[in-house]
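FW: tagging you since you asked about this chain on Friday. Here's the raw sequence from the shared folder, copied in full. Didn't touch anything.
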Amino acid sequence: MNTREDAERILKLRGIRFAYPGENPVLNDLDFDLYRGDRIGLLAPNGSGKTTLFHLIIGLLAPNAGILEIFGNEVTAERDFIAIRRKIGLLFQDADDQLFSPTVMEDVAFGPLNMGKSKDEALAISRRVLSFLGLSAFEDRITFKLSGGEKKLVSLATVLAMEPEVLLLDEPMNGLDHHTRMRLREILESIDLTYIIISHDIDFLIDTTSAIYTMADGRIMKDEQVSIHQHDHAHLFGHVPHKHK
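HL: got it, structure written out here
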């Protein structure tokens, strides 16, 4: 039988510390491992460091201390993240931070073209991804005229077109109508990718992840340390009978 140790470890974070200038640490001696096939949910209050963690993983921010290993290699400099960003796709919380081209097709094809694909290859990949997401009719749509839910799905298309091995999804359900929320659930259930999802929607996380963690005091708290409740929050020692005021 395969054990956890037999699985390929994608992320290894040890003693990660990060503070924005003039502020207290957001991440404080954080340890975390992500293995291939993991589907992890992060449910924690705003300001707990969830988005900061994602930005550290793809090199948008640099830790003040600690060790960050990705795909078996320690990464420390900007040049180390060039290859990483081809394997780990980040879906930003705000789709407007992700979309910048005039049309949907131009946005989705940008990633493959930037990776060295020919124009024909990039278009073929983009059309395949748009079809998979049910967005085939969107190729020539003007990006800034899309609805919030449409922008979110197109943003996901731009990430999937890079053919990543890992997805980091930051509040993917924000601003979505019921139909789009259900479609996103179906998409995540059908893809064979490792991912971490930040969300305040516990039902969504229950449906789409195999483990839900929270964050407190700048650290990730595993499921043996935390209990997730249906009243839409998480905290330490939740399994102990308690009252909420």
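FW: The chain has a mean pLDDT of 89.
HL: agreed, and Residues 4-229 form a domain with the Rossmann fold fold (CATH 3.40.50.300).
FW: great, closing this out.
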